[in-house]
Amino acid sequence: MSIIISLCVLLLLSYVFDLSASKTRIPTVILLIALGWGVKQASSFLGFQEHNLNPILPLLGTVGLILIVLEGSLELEINRSKLPLVGKSSLIALIPMLILSVGLAWAFDYFGHTGFKIGLVNAIPFTVISSAIAIPSARNLLSDQKEFVTYESSLSDIFGVILFNFVALNDEFTAASYGEFFIQLILILAISLVSTLLLSYLLGNIKHHVKFVPIMLMVVLIYAISKTFHLPSLIFILLFGLFLGNVDELKHLKFIQKLKTENLQEEVHKFRELITEITFMIRSLFFLLFGFLIETKELLNLATISWAISIVAAIFLIRWLCLKAFGYRASPLLFLAPRGLITILLFLSIPLTQVAGIANKSLIIQVIILCALIMMGGLMMQKPVKDIE
User: Fold this and answer.
1) Which among 301, 303, 343 has a CA at the least distance from the CA of 126?
2) pTM of the model
3) How many helices and strands, by DSSP H and E, does the chain display?
4) Domain chopping of the chain, boundaries
């Protein structure tokens, strides 16, 4: 019973943090991690029995990643006027990732003697922007800035997972491995098309009073099965969300009309509300647990702090150059490059044979915390803005 009481209190505190974020401009994730860490210290001080909660973190992270990308894509508007934004956000998500991955891989190889390939596997988690932190943190920005952050961070997650799987699962980069990668992309696009149309039809036509939970379970099932076969399954989540969020733009197409779009739009609105609620809970639990599992000695590890500062400096320098090159104002977009949920998931997914001691848990934690603190500082310096009606 005490666990239930504790969870309820912690989630209610998370809700308070979320409500107050627009006033304090402190990202909710910072407060959640700090709260989780504080609970761990209090538990140790009071002598409560500790349980091994580490296996729960990847599970919460995977479900959270699905929900966060789905929630973000449901809010995005797709039309011809948005194509330049999609193109720019794609490049700004991809270019820094490639530069940082190669640079860090070289550094890990040079200073840690990891070998370039293993260094690259360990470098990629540091290069991915966390949509779990970026999207909710951009809530109070102008609508075009928020839209850019949603596209960029969601695409960064997808590019990061694709790049990580390609590097980690191939011993050598040959024509055969590139061919297999291309086939995987074609397969996931085909699966996404069929699954999206089927799920959309069910969403608009199921008359039973329980419909959204089965739809969500099928989404997770398709993701998990695709992931088992090493397909870039986040593409399915993104395309499914984009389709549902923009079905009104496609209703002139004959095969879309068979989905009964009038009824479907109403159901999509209800579905979006449910996803928002569940995403809040899963994201809160993930970062509370992440904070709880942080060991103070890992956070204050002096052996890795110089590496962490160097990596974070490189992240923001390359981001600043990239934003300038594409004609964007640096502030506030410069600060919205957090590392978080996806970084942790990729780090935990590194095969045991490719783990490098130089890229350890302490370094991951320090980079995540430093990026979050810089984001918090940058957002707190911004003056309140409103969209022009």
Assistant:
1) 343
2) 0.87
3) 17, 0
4) 55-381
Instruction: Calculate the alpha carbon distances from 382 to 30, 198, 257 in Å.
Output: 18, 44, 45
What the block records as the tokens of 313 is 């400096």
Residue of 336, 194, 211 lying closest to 268 (CA atoms): 211
On whether the CB atoms of residues 236 and 226 are closer than 8 A, the answer is yes
Nearest to 246 by CA among 55, 26, 75: 75
Q: d(Cα 64, Cα 257) in Å, to the nearest integer?
A: 32
Determine the Cα–Cα distance for residues 98 and 300; give it in Å rounded to an integer.
Answer: 29
According to CATH, the topology of domain 55-381 is Na+/H+ antiporter like fold (1.20.1530)
In three-state secondary structure terms, 13 is: helix
According to the model, what pLDDT value does residue 389 have? 42
Q: What is the pLDDT of residues 146-187, one digit of tens each?
A: 889 988 998 898 899 889 988 988 877 788 888 888 999 999
- pLDDT at residue 316 greater than cutoff 90: yes
Half-sphere exposure of 370 (CA within 13 A, CB side): 22
Tokens, residue 280? 């809040």
Write down the pLDDT at residue 340. 87
pLDDT of residue 121: 94
Look-up of token digits 């932190």: 133
Mean pLDDT of the chain: 87
pLDDT tens-digit series, residues 335-354: 999 998 889 989 988 988 89
**Tokens representing residue 151 in the block:** 């596209």
